[in-house]
Here is the input.
Amino acid sequence: MQLPTISVDKILLESCPAVQLGILLTQVKVTPGSDAFLDLIQAGVAVQKEQQTLETIGKIPALLSTRRAYKALGKDPSRYRPSAEALLRRVVSGKGLYQVNNV
Here is the structure.
């Protein structure tokens, strides 16, 4: 597999010097989801719904860091929510997770 060249914009490095980025390259095969896998996901959703509230989500250190990075780059994190925060808010609000495939 040919590895892509990855570069990070200087603005990101200057605005968020502590940023840590990662990339995962893999080959996957999409197959029908199993009931056991879906049950595992639902169990995780139930735990998060029980442990978090909309108020506590805003205090999660990783989400605070992401929101600070958004602000440093000129984006309003309340308008353009980080995906992890948006998904957690969806779970806590009782909307569950949507499923596209098992990847």
